[in-house]
Amino acid sequence: MTKFKQIIGRGTRIDEDYGKLFFVIMDFKKATELFADRDFDGDPVQIYEPKPTDPIVPPEPGEDEVQVIDREIVRKAKPERYVVADTDVAIALIREQYYSKEGKLITESIKDYTRQTVRKQYTSLDAFLKKWNSIEQKQVIIQELQEQGVLLEALENEVGKEFDPFDLICHVVFDQPPLTRRERANNVRKRDYFNKYGEQVRAVLDALLEKYTDQGVEDIEKMDVLKVKPLSDMGTPLEILSLFGGKPKYLQTLAELKIRLYEAM
């Protein structure tokens, strides 16, 4: 620990004459986990994890954040300002920390943690796909992932809220290109899957796809989805179920719809 502190201490020395304003740690032994020791240096003042297109030096507090998307520069607004007792204040930094299901502080990136956690149960993409496809209620496997310690909400914040748990896991753990919920729903529409049904059933299925796009697969698996707009405008739950020939056939059609949703990786 003493040697570690000495190394980091020398790295933090600034030498403006030589343009030395930052330093990089090449961590091959998870030594940076020692930063979680509050007795060492307290909580970090700032955590900055630049993407490949971001500047190495973090922005000054209050500066506009600049993000490069497809070579287009998008300038984000300055942090929201507040007034407390007639004094201007602003949020300079938000720090998020995550804990594993054992209550241990997660010191690696959320992606690395997810990869390690999921691979304990699913050693290959085929194993995960086999389990996903074998379970009709996707909420069951999503709940299992959460019970194993996978922090899906944190992963959404890191990768994107437009992806559902299936694509988050396939992308982060097994390096598969993800599809957004919108892309999956549109793929089902393009295959003319609805053509074999009547107009009213097609309208219900299209509304379910839109619900999937907005909320995810767990939402359309609940019978309560028939009680909310736009489905509630199509009739009562009993009337909607009767369009399919009853609840069993509705559930059978819904199961087939979910199969179609996850056909394409």
From TrEMBL:
GO MF term list: DNA binding; type I site-specific deoxyribonuclease activity
EC number(s) from the headed UniProt entry: 3.1.21.3
Broadest EC class assigned to this enzyme: hydrolase
Taxonomic superkingdom: Bacteria
InterPro entries with a match to the protein in the record: EcoEI_R_C_dom, P-loop_NTPase
Keyword terms, alphabetized: Hydrolase
Residues annotated as transmembrane: none
Domain (EcoEI R protein C-terminal) ranges: 108-262
GO biological process: DNA modification
One Pfam family it belongs to: EcoEI_R_C
Protein's name in the database: Type I restriction enzyme EcoAI R protein
Species name: Planktothrix serta PCC 8927
